[in-house]
Amino acid sequence: ATKIDKEACREAYNLVRDDATEVNWVTFKYNGSTIVPGDQGVDYETFKRKCTDDVRLFGFVRFTTGDAMSKRVKFALITWIGEDVSGLQRAKTGTDKTLVKEVVQNFAKEFVISDHKELDEDYIKNELKKAGGANYDAQTE
């Protein structure tokens, strides 16, 4: 059965939540049958490059959405399952996500993605915007 290194993962998660750090994303990856913190970084493009066809990982990502009147920080939980991941591993990823959610508890929206197009930053920001909060752009739409 899959396990999670809760302490290490919580530290990584808190880095993204902390306004005082520049870390905007972290990944949680498999080390054998244990989920551990993977990479972290500032640039979303770098995060996207971690999402290759042969891996499955969980990403916790900070996005700033909004307009001149109201900037909001929103968090997304992204489950990435690459196209070359086996059916069995795919199926397990869904149940393993519950372990990740014991650590990652605050996010506006969760995504399960296996198509690189859906990792597009604008697409995700748009979905987060729809997921809630006031939208002061409404007058112009």
From TrEMBL:
Q: Which Pfam families match?
A: Cofilin_ADF
Which GO MF terms are attached to this record?
actin filament binding
Superkingdom of source: Eukaryota
Q: Where in the cell is it found?
A: Cytoplasm, Cytoskeleton
Instruction: Provide the alphabetized UniProt keywords.
Output: Actin-binding, Cytoplasm, Cytoskeleton
Tell me, which GO biological process terms does this entry list? regulation of actin filament polymerization
Q: Identify the residues that the record assigns to the ADF-H domain, covering every copy.
A: 1-129
* Signal sequence, start to end: none
> GO CC annotation: what is one?
cortical actin cytoskeleton
Q: Which SMART domains match?
A: ADF (SM00102)
PANTHER family from the UniProt entry: COACTOSIN-LIKE PROTEIN, CORTACTIN AND DREBRIN
UniProt function note: Binds to F-actin in a calcium-independent manner. Has no direct effect on actin depolymerization. Acts as a chaperone for ALOX5 (5LO), influencing both its stability and activity in leukotrienes synthesis.
Q: Which family does it belong to?
A: Belongs to the actin-binding proteins ADF family. Coactosin subfamily.
Relate the assembly described in the record.
Interacts with 5-lipoxygenase (ALOX5/5LO) in a calcium-independent manner. Binds to F-actin with a stoichiometry of 1:2.
Q: What is this protein called?
A: Coactosin-like protein
> Which organism is this protein's natural source?
Chlamydotis macqueenii (Macqueen's bustard)
